[in-house]
Amino acid sequence: MTVPKSQRLHIALFGRRNAGKSSLINALTGQDLAIVSDVPGTTTDPVFKAMEILPLGPVVLIDTAGIDDVGELGQLRKKKSYEVFEKTDLVLLVIDPQAGYGEFEKEVVQKAQKTQTPVIYVINKVDLYQPSELLEQFKPLNLQPVVFVSALTRKGIDELKQAIINHAPKEWILPTVVGDLINPGDVVICVIPVDKAAPKGRLILPQQIVIRDIIDSEAMAMVVKERELIHAFNYLNKKPSLVVTDASVYNKAAADTPSDIRLTSFSILFARYKGDLQTLVEGVKAVKNLKPGDKVLISEACTHHPVEDDIGRVKIPRWLRAQVGGDLDIDVKAGGGPLPEPLNQYKLIVHCGACMLNRKEMLSRIMQAKVAGVPIVNYGVIMAHIHGVLHRALSPFPHLQSIISETMDDMKEEIESLKKIRGRR
Amino acid sequence: MTVPKSQRLHIALFGRRNAGKSSLINALTGQDLAIVSDVPGTTTDPVFKAMEILPLGPVVLIDTAGIDDVGELGQLRKKKSYEVFEKTDLVLLVIDPQAGYGEFEKEVVQKAQKTQTPVIYVINKVDLYQPSELLEQFKPLNLQPVVFVSALTRKGIDELKQAIINHAPKEWILPTVVGDLINPGDVVICVIPVDKAAPKGRLILPQQIVIRDIIDSEAMAMVVKERELIHAFNYLNKKPSLVVTDASVYNKAAADTPSDIRLTSFSILFARYKGDLQTLVEGVKAVKNLKPGDKVLISEACTHHPVEDDIGRVKIPRWLRAQVGGDLDIDVKAGGGPLPEPLNQYKLIVHCGACMLNRKEMLSRIMQAKVAGVPIVNYGVIMAHIHGVLHRALSPFPHLQSIISETMDDMKEEIESLKKIRGRR
């Protein structure tokens, strides 16, 4: 079992001088952080850059010195570059088609194999070549896995992100599920209903993970059933910094939580922890674009026996049909592996909470949807939206609340314009 | 998998009129609750009696009408007796050697087999017969499992308790681990250290079980690391009714918990939940009777790789030797199944926390020790004693504190008398 060498995924970029490592970093992050220059060897030392790549989350990109440098300085850089392998989860070997695949590339691959670090072959600058030229040059080499990109035009960048996810360590997790939202000494209330769905005499894993992350963060977790929530506020003489509730009792929790206290749900926290909350929240916006007859994919990670009023097979389809005011062509697919292709036949993907998937598997599906250009949302996010509580459930994430606000503004505008049309008749 | 039909173990006693069912109940409970009479058929209806049997804990004993009653009333009673099977985990079929094993006994066994309820054959009144007579009468019948008892002289009662434990459902648990110690609306603080021993990112099962039981009891669980405990008291404007700490930080927790608040540990709660706290606390008293050269059994349920300063192999033996002021003959046995025989070669048994045993397996070992007349204590209780915190860790159980107080008084007396002897010299 491969375990990440650190809690943040460490991705090292190797490549000859001027292969385009720094501009590739910019393309991955969408930021202009690295020094981009056409003077060979601008990057002189391995640089560790903690950054956010959507939808991967926090990563460390390791920008290495050009490994084909000659002379004494070059040897030194080379040595340092190889030390990097010890800290690396994944290697991106950036290849300039003009320079091709030569001795230094082979050397990097050998070193990576010795440390059992996966390598992704990234053929850069493809905008400068005909596809047939590239095929002719690289097909005989049988490099696996290979991604053709242009850091300049961003072509292939989403496919590269998908490859990164696919080759990340299986145990890749985020450093924290809730810890980054709270401060030491904070009190966080966790609302855990005890209903038929609760396992006998214990806590389910998401609840354990959240409580443990709270105490790991030197904060305190006040654990209550929904009925006792109101008493918890009375018994505390310090304002809780956050309330995390089970989604099934969201309305009760929202009613009892003062409006100046941030409130979210275990499902929202796990949508972020297991996948990418921003993409899933953006997916909600696609609901209003659905038209009668559109195809929608309900995707479940496990094959469970559907229960009466099943969330994926009954509740969400019923609500979606009511929204579009007509029928929808809804496919339900359950199981592991990639989503069914061609994926772009669907106008929306509604995914389960992914309790049976790890972060890597869920992110892989999110990227598959992104590459196909299909909006994706999950049960937790869409159910919060259906119950009219998504905006408040995103209160710990103000930058995501604005996505929803835009949707709400759009809808208000639409309502106004429809009213005007009706008024003219 | 057999699951108890209720949270309390339901034990039904069947037997002919005057087989001695009611006096057997008295012998099991040590109380004079049932009507004991030599007039056949005194007990007229199945009676459900919730009671405590040491070390089994809370059970329901079902005293049935004599099933060999004749006439209309007898038939009615018989029908009611059979309805009882639906609610029964275990049947004690009480047999009077004078009446012997006949049609009604066979009928009970058939009914029990239909509902897959285990039957223990209890040959009562053995004080009235020669062992050879009983053997001659019952050996050819090959009744399994069989226990020979005398409700009158209490002979065989411990063996019967052992048989009850052995044939109880595998999943037999106590109704509550902490719920009976608290009231709805209470705040309970749980102190959970995050050290190397803690699993990554989650809570261990005993912690989950305690938190869940607190919220199931309509109380609130404030979960903190030991460093934050002092803040928890400051942030609460209601006095917590109980603090439950991990034993590894007991001294820190005791220092920070006001003396008027009850304090115990997860290990003490689980010594009670998984076994019988009273027997284990009584076991502590045996330490002072140990003499150099005595044999002590360290019993561990699982075969783990002993760590440096291992609690069972190093810490406890070191402390015991220091207590007796000489060497001890210490056996360490690890694994499942019964304790090694002959068990009475040992003067003390020190058992592990039994995290890998269920209640039934741990109780079975406790009964084995009781039958052999060997004191038994577990790691949690003896470590609390070693650290001088057992008395306070028993604060939720005042009737057990008095057992320790006696020991302390005994020790004080001994110290005084030794001082006097020294003074005379």
From TrEMBL, chains A, B:
Residues 279-396 form the Hydrogen maturase F tetramerization domain. It comes from the Bacteria. One of its GO terms (molecular function) is GTP binding. Pfam families: HydF_dimer, HydF_tetramer, MMR_HSR1. One of its GO terms (cellular component) is cytoplasm. Residues 178-275 form the Hydrogen maturase F dimerization domain. Residues 10-125 form the G domain. InterPro entries: FeFe-hyd_GTPase_HydF, GTP-bd, HydF_dimer, HydF_tetramer, P-loop_NTPase, Small_GTP-bd. GO terms for biological process: tRNA methylation; tRNA wobble uridine modification. PANTHER family: TRANSLATION INITIATION FACTOR IF-2, TRNA MODIFICATION GTPASE GTPBP3. This is [FeFe] hydrogenase H-cluster maturation GTPase HydF. It comes from Thermodesulfovibrio aggregans.
